[in-house]
Structure formats: structure tokens, C-alpha cells
């Protein structure tokens, strides 16, 4: 087998919303060698979608993943889609990339997927998402960690349509206002669109129940900001990112799509970075 054959990557996207479309557009622009989007899973196969890659096949049932020669399935459709598509993805592709990581607040679901991955030799991949990269926190967790605090600050409009509306008057805020302080499990469970990323920091460090998450609405904020602080036997970590929100979905960040592009490109690149 030649080097180019080994680096072939046939992709399937679960969902074709703002994040998947952003990733697809960037891959089309950058055209990494060997990467092909061949399948997109959607609820309605018959609705016209002018932005799909040429020649892509639309499917709507997990069983349709069989026999397609997939290398990677990328979920970008929301928490419910993870449970629906996960097992079929793990049985029919080498890796299943989970963007809606709040699904893993369900311990039984995660345990089932890990069991299937062990059985099939496939892998569950948790992308870095809006956090860019948490390699340092993952490495630090090899030694005992004392504390991990993940603070998420977004403008009030990003919290519309969430339980924050019952906790704050988002339209009248004059100063930065924390409205939630609890575990990553609770944050991601109650705010799956905004605090989904808390599961990533939790899985990278000390888990869903020990990771503390603080959610803040700030009328002065123009970007979606994340600050991850950790301390332990390794020393101390303080990581801050300010991400531009997706134009089409202010609850998500541009970095979420960019991290998926990096993950895909690294899967075929001769040099990992």
C-alpha cells in the first residue's frame, strides 16, 4: 500500500448545520490530499441543500452507514444524535468524532460506546472544540490534580433560549454577571449548546463531577471566552481563549469548526502539529 493510500480519509458528517458547513467549506478551500466527504446524515433527505459537496450521498438511518468504506464519522448534529448514531458509527468507521460532548454526561452511554470501540477496534474522539487544545491539561492529569475551574463568558445574546433567561434579565445587564457555579456535568446538562465544551475540559482533567464550571453573561463581551485554571502536582495552568462566535450561531465559536478541520487534516498529514 502506498503512502497516499494509507492517508485516504473518507468522511461522513452527522448533521449539516453551521458547524458542519463551516468545516466543509474550509476543507473545500484547503483541499487536504486524500480527504473526501462522501456521506452526510440528515433528517430529511429530500430537502434541497445547495451547499453540499458535489457527489455526496445523503442518508437518514444509522444502518445505512454499513458498507460505505468510511474512515471517520463526525457528529455535528446535537446531543440526541450521539446516542442515535454512535454505535453504528463505531461499527462502520475507524473513528467516531463527537462534537456534542454533553451527551457523555450519560455515563452509561459513554461506557457502552467504549465497550463497542474495544470490540471493533474503533476509536471515540473528543475534539478540542472551542478550547483549541487541552494537551497540557491532559498531560497534567497523569499526576494528581487538585482543582480544575472552567469559566465561560459570553455576551447576553448567546445565552438567549437557555435557562439563563430565568436567572437573569439578559436585556438589562449592565455588568458581567455570573449565574451558574457547579459541576461540568450539571453545566453541560443544563446548557448543552453553550457549555458543551465543559465536558471536554472535564474529560481532559479530573472528570465531570470534580471539574467546576462558572457561567457568566457579560454585556461588554464581544467574543465567547473560556478560561481554564488547574493546579496539582504538575504545577499550575491558566489558559484563556477569546473566540469569535459563529455568524450563524452565536452560541458556538469559530474555533469549534477550526478544531475539526485540524483534526481531519492531522489524520492525513505526514507531520502532526
Question: Would you kindly provide a written description of the structure presented here, covering whatever features stand out?
Answer:
The protein is built from 8 helices and 13 strands. The chain is an alpha/beta fold and 273 residues long. It has 2 domains: 3-125, Rossmann fold (3-Layer(aba) Sandwich); 135-252, 2-Layer Sandwich (Dihydrodipicolinate Reductase, domain 2). It has a 6-stranded parallel β-sheet, sandwiched between helices. The longest helix is centred in the C-terminal third of the chain and has 15 residues, at 254-268.
Question: In terms of topology, how is this protein built?
Answer:
Elements (H helix, E strand, L loop, with lengths): L2 H4 L2 E6 L3 H13 L4 E7 L15 E3 L12 E4 L3 H14 L2 E4 L8 H14 L2 E3 L9 H6 L4 E10 L22 E7 H7 L7 H7 L7 E6 L6 E9 L2 E9 L1 E2 L2 E5 H15 L5
Amino acid at each position: 500500500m502506498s503512502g497516499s493510500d494509507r492517508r485516504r480519509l473518507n468522511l461522513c458528517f452527522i448533521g449539516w448545520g453551521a458547524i458542519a458547513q463551516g468545516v466543509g467549506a474550509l476543507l473545500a478551500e484547503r483541499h487536504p490530499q486524500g480527504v473526501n466527504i462522501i456521506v452526510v446524515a440528515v433528517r430529511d433527505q429530500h430537502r434541497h441543500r445547495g451547499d453540499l459537496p458535489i457527489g455526496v450521498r445523503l442518508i437518514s438511518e444509522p444502518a445505512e452507514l454499513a458498507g460505505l468504506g468510511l474512515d471517520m464519522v463526525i457528529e455535528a448534529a446535537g446531543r440526541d444524535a450521539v446516542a442515535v448514531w454512535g454505535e453504528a458509527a463505531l461499527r462502520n468507521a475507524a473513528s467516531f468524532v463527537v462534537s456534542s460532548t454533553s451527551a457523555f454526561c450519560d455515563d452509561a452511554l459513554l461506557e457502552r460506546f467504549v465497550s463497542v470501540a474495544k470490540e471493533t477496534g474503533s476509536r471515540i474522539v473528543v475534539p478540542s472544540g472551542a478550547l483549541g487544545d487541552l494537551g497540557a491539561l491532559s498531560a497534567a492529569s497523569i499526576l494528581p490534580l487538585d482543582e480544575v475551574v472552567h469559566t465561560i463568558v459570553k455576551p447576553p445574546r448567546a445565552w438567549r433560549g437557555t435557562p439563563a433567561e430565568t436567572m437573569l434579565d439578559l436585556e438589562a445587564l449592565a455588568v458581567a454577571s455570573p449565574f451558574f457555579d457547579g459541576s461540568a456535568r450539571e453545566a453541560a446538562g443544563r446548557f448543552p449548546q453553550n457549555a458543551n465544551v465543559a465536558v471536554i475540559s472535564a474529560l481532559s482533567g479530573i472528570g465531570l463531577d470534580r471539574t467546576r464550571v462558572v457561567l457568566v453573561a457579560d454585556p461588554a463581551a464581544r467574543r465567547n471566552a473560556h478560561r481554564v485554571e488547574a493546579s496539582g502536582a504538575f504545577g499550575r495552568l491558566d489558559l484563556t481563549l477569546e473566540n469569535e462566535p459563529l455568524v450563524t450561531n452565536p452560541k458556538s465559536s469559530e474555533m469549534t469548526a477550526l478544531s475539526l478541520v485540524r483534526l481531519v487534516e492531522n489524520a492525513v498529514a505526514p507531520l502532526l502539529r
